Task: structure prediction
Amino acid sequence: AGLCVVLSFRANELLTNPAAKSLARSLELSGGKRLSLRPMPDDDIRRHLAAISLASPERLETVANVAGGNPFYARELALADSSSIEDDHRDSMSAVILSRADGLLDHERTVLDVLAVAGSPLAVADLSTISGLSVPRVVRAVTVLTRLHLASDQAGCVSFAHDLTRQAFYSALPTSTRRSFHASVATSFVDRAGASFLAHHFFEAGMLPEAHRAALSAAEESRRRRAFAEEVRWLRLAVTTSGDNKAALLEGVVDRLFALSKYSDAIALIECSARRPSDRLAVQAELARLKVLVGSSGDVAQGMGRCDALFASAVAGGFSIEAVEALR
Result:
């Protein structure tokens, strides 16, 4: 498998950071590409849109003026209705993106919503199962969405044409619609998808027991791959969805975080739990162990400062001063 190395830096950092300068030079010598994040000049915007035939010549000037050097915004403006780019009516990017779905039929919008929730390419058969629409209706909807540059159909796998477009439509969905489709996605893929995929969709659907089991599996998979940041993410989700097993799981997760030298993450997790009255017994047990863990972390002075801040947070979160002082 290939390895993609991404180095992100500000131009002035190459003058003050020898390591960044050396790495940037090495990447360039090995064939790396440097991408500037400066706004794209208006002339380049016009050439870009003309090359992909997304705007008529008479609209190029207006689109370039409104886009402000953002090629994605320029693309969305070019695809939107012309009223969205009048010089005296500059909508937000989100409003412009959403306006592109105004003329969709109900079944076309349903397919678009499912794609927004899924977040990854779906086969037509899966789109049919999740949406409740027949395969022929899904095919017709995909044809329309592809023609409008909202969706992309790659060898029978359908997804949004651009992830920022997907995010705009996802954010605009009512909570009930989002949860319903997350549940449908999770149950449709329960025997085929990875644990991390299922944990995300079960959690967003509000199906907490299922999300908890999947999060624990995802954490274990991440640990085997030595993807420790991902492991921490899924462990935190497992604690959030643990129900009656909070105390035992919280203890195990905190120990794991300390083993990874992620002291701030451990303390933040306990602080988060301390804000929920239902978790206070579990949190008290962790407070009692915390100074022992911090004291053995090798960073005693800084760890004790964090620990003191945690105790202050615990008091603010509703613990009695007497209880906290007894634990200190």
